[in-house]
Amino acid sequence: MDSPLLRRCARAVTTTHKHIRRRAAPQQCRFYADQSDFRAAAPIRFDQPRAELLDNDERSRGRKNEKPEIDLYSLRIVPASPSYFTATPQYTDDLLHLSTLVRRHKLLPHLPQGEAPRIAWKTIDQYKTEKAEPVKMKGYNALLKLLKELNYIHPSLMPEEVKAALETFKRDVQPYLNVPKPITVDAYGVSIAVGRRKSSSAKVYLVEGTGEALINGRPLTDYFGRLHDRESAVWALKCTQRLDKYNVWALAKGGGTTGQAEAITLACAKALLAHEPDLKPALRRAGCVTRNPKRVERKKPGKLKARKMPAWVKR
Amino acid sequence: MSMSICLRCLKRALILPELSSSRAAFSTSASLHANPTKKKAVVPKTLAKAGRTLRLAKNKRVVTARPPAAGERKALRKKVVLSNTNALEVPGLAELSTEIVRDGAQLKALEGKVVGFGAETAEALRCLEGFKPGQGWHLFRRPAALLRKDGVEMGEAIQRAREEKTVERRVVFGDKGSGKSVLLLQSMAMPYLQGWVVIHFPEARDITNAQTPYEPVQTADGKTAYVQPRYIASILSNIAAANRALLNDLRITQQHNLPIPLQSNISLTRLVELGANDAQLAWPIWQAFLSEITAPSQPEKQGGLRPPVFVGMDGVDHIMRMSAYLDTDMKPIHAHDLAIAQSFTAMLSGKTHLANGGMIMAATSGSTRPSVPTLDHFLARAYALGHAEPLKAMRDALLEQTKVTVYDGDLAPLEQLNTSAMHPEVAAQVLELKYGIHHLQENDASLEKLQGFLQRFKVRLPKAAVWDAYLPKDENVVAVMESGVRVTKVAGLSKDEARSVMEYYARSGMLRGSPVTEGLVGEKWTLAGGGIIGELEKGTVAIPSRQLCATKGRPRLASAPAGILDFPFDSAQIRDNITALFMASIMTVVLCLV
User: Fold this and answer.
1) Which residues of B, range 495-514, sit inside 8 Å of A by Cβ?
2) What are the C-alpha distances in Å from A56 to residues A51, A53, A62, B373?
3) Sequence-ordered list of residues with C-beta below 8 angstroms from that of A96, at least 6 positions apart, any chain
């Protein structure tokens, strides 16, 4: 027993540094294993940083305040959430959080099917970039499903935590907030609407009247020589048999005759919908409601026009 | 009785002889002799290098059809068809007659209704070329036109001119298709029925478009005028044909210096025919004729009675500018230097006085409008003043009336003004005055405020009616327009008039498929740009006559409106054909039996 190694061990046990309190771990002193030596590890103190990072006087201050010192040597870092052990911890946490919210607020009144506010959620790529985790599409879709379910909660009764949770998943720019201004009938009974076709645009002022129509201050026959164009311009009124019920004042510019006539069609239809919204299905069937997106195709290099190729030469 | 002929032979006998030539002949010599084939001269083709010659022959059009005769195409273009046998006869269609025209009340009762022209009247108007080819006369059974407020007004003016022996001078203008020419036609029919001498220049464009020969003459005041003999001759022939019955009873009463000797008691018809037949005599005879009919009436002399005169011109804006002719210095000639145009403008401006009264009426053209800024200015000015003056008068009346309280003024005439018929700028001023007074009345303003507002309110003419001082004014036109001619604008129809016309179309069978409801009338009225009658006709019964002319072979119809029958032949023709066939077959059977 009087070996130098043993002696050195015993000395090590007895001598202690000033600022480190070393406690004999049971594993180190196997020879001195004792029932009373089995003690739980001390709780990790997080209110103080590691000793090496403290200044000398702070260390001393800490000592003066007599705060229990952290045994950083035996510090144990435990993950904040068990998701740490998954491949996508933040995603897993989000999923669990949302599931909890769904379960918690399941009994709140929901909006009818199809009437929830339209939200542009983050795309999977945006989410992945943000979280820097390899989230799979299937997993993200599960997340989206929960978000959509939470979105159906009635907005007047939506809890703050749900609102906060949903905000983090919304895209920065919400395109669905960009709604067109509703066209109304003003105090004088006039509704104003704009229509476009090719490169023409027209602004129509529609008011109840006896069936007069003026385009840029000129009568309909004076402005449109062709009967087809005249009919096109007031098609919205003609197909609903309201030509003698409204007066039209139109300002058209750009493009050519037929383009302006078609622009007036669209504008007239929109203005008429302000007066009588129930006419929408009829006008849609008549083809007045959709803006014709066709435009003149640009000329491409190597061709004479948009599509026309130069004459083929054998060599 | 049993037949002595078998059924097969009877069938063969019933086939008309000309159709049986489809049987094969025994020999071909007979048919060959009948139609010998002409041998073409064989021209040896020179050997040409392949692919290097210019082959103009490949584009040569082989003309197989007969080329049209001289004047045939023009006749076809100017053809006016006044009747359509396929259209229905409209029962109860009123006709313009002498009694109706004489009686102002009866004429007024016909306002807003479609009135037909009698056969004689239609013939006379056709001789005068009053019916134009582009109008829709060929669609209906009889020529008929809507009698509008303007037409009734013309009738009243004609009565006034007859009674007071004054001269009514009118210029009529309006949009294309608004009914100016037809108004002129009705205004010609009414004096014709009353026994006036009717003179008409159907297209003033023909005077100035340099399509007829012209020659210079020296006038009495030393200036050069240009005479168009052939044109004047054609006008004289129209006058002779239309006014034959009337002019037969009138004889010349003055001495005329003509290149040919004249009998002293020659009838005016004969005089006019002399000019019509010889172009060289046309201008002197025209002058003689004009002096005869504008001379005072001498009832004691035989044939010395002189009725009033109606002179009409369609397309007067063509003679209010430079013509297409050139003088000896290669400078353009003003239309007023053309002798015939000078005659007319002298009558229109009142320089040539009609001793027995009459009416001079000029209509502008809508579709062939040349640029005539001076005339346009005067027309716009007259039109604007026609509305602005009453407005000013109303403003003055209100100033007079509002002496005690703000509510004194009579706003009824102001409310009754029809702003849709006015120029937009004038209409805006009417509304400004009306709503200004309403606003002051509603806010219980003081009398001084109202008076101040009324005094400050100035009636402004629209920009088109104010002449730009930096633009050159045509002095000839100024002289005519400032001589006191009355200017009338022919506007669109009202909805009631439109309904009346569409009912006439429906009763003629030309507007089929849908009944004439208020909705349909309103729709067509709006699509016609506020009731422009030409556009209304196009939108309801359509087919312009030019598109019905045979271009190559069968007539091609550009549009297919609801009204016209598709069957190309006349039912009467078919009925006649079937009858003929039946009679021929009966005769053949009878002959066989005998």
Assistant:
1) 495
2) 9, 9, 10, 104
3) A83
pLDDT at B561: 42
State which residue of chain A sits closest to B532, comparing Cα positions: A221
Task: Taking residues B110-138, report their average pLDDT.
Answer: 95
| Torsion of Cα atoms, B140 then B144 then B150 then B152, to 10° | -160
The confidence score (pLDDT) of residue A142 equals: 97
Look up residue B132 and give its amino acid.
K
Query: Of B286 and B439, which is predicted with more confidence?
Result: B286
- More confident call, B593 vs B133: B133
Say whether residue B518 is in contact with chain A using an 8 A CB cutoff: yes
A221: chain B residues, CB-CB within 8 Å: 175-177, 528-530, 532, 535
Pick from A210, A221, A241: CB nearest B528: A221
Nearest to B133 by CA among B581, B545, B583, B555: B545
Burial class (CB in 10 A: 0-12, 13-18, 19+), A223: buried
**More confident site: B515 or B590:** B515
**What are B201's strand-pairing partners?**
B313
Does residue B374 register a pLDDT over 80? yes
Work out the minimum CA distance from B517 to partner chain A, whole angstroms: 12
When CB atoms are compared, the residue of B420, B424, B535 closest to A221 is B535
Cα gap B187→B181, rounded to integer Å: 10
Do the beta carbons of residue B520 and residue B502 sit within 8 Å? yes
Check whether B540 has a pLDDT greater than 50.
yes
DSSP code at position B62:
P
Contact B522 A211 (CB under 8 A): yes
Confirm or reject contact between B527 and chain A (CB < 8 A). yes
Instruction: State both tokens at A313.
Output: 């030469």
The per-residue pLDDT for range A170-204, each reduced to its tens digit, is 999 999 999 989 999 999 999 999 999 999 999 99
Tell me what ipTM this predicted complex has: 0.75
